[in-house]
Amino acid sequence: MNVHGIAETPSEHVRFAAYLDMLRHVREPDEVALVARVLADQDRTMARSAVLRHLDLRAADLCDGPAYPHWAPAMAEAVSGHPFLVQRLREWTLLRAVALDQPWQEDDLLASSDWLQLKAAAGSHARAIELLAERGRTQRIRNAARAGLSGGRPSRPRRSSRRPTRP
Known about the structure:
This protein is mainly alpha-helical. It has a domain at 8-81. Helix content is 63%, strand content 0%. The protein is built from nine helices and no strands. The chain has helices at residues 11-25, 31-39, 44-62, 68-78, 83-99, 106-110, 114-121, 126-135, 139-150. Helix 2 packs parallel to helix 4. It is elongated and about 50 Å long. The relative contact order is 0.07. Residues 142-167 are annotated as: Disordered. It comes from Streptomyces xanthii.
């Protein structure tokens, strides 16, 4: 977005960009309060989208480190009134358990979203990949997991070489 386009840019777009910038630069002690402030915006869809992006970036950074177990409960409290955000945080926690070879339940992984199953299928945990290759929610997930098992790329259905006939 350039300066000349700001006057023509809808206010929710400007706020979204501002929220992303604030969330990107927030100090750790102020993070939960800022997330709560963003989620209080009148445009709930935009606010949840900004927080989701932040949550995904932070969780990815913290997932395999020692700070995650302290960060996740605080973030869970901040997003508690937003079921999709709560679910995404729960899935990050499950992905962390899988990646770090901590205890996790097969049923939890199988009941998770396509997003998490694809992330887990792209990981390196053999038990999770084998489970998803066999019982993943979609063909895409099963193919991605099988590719992970074989060390290759997911196979794609072949397109027909026949061209459609014209009337």
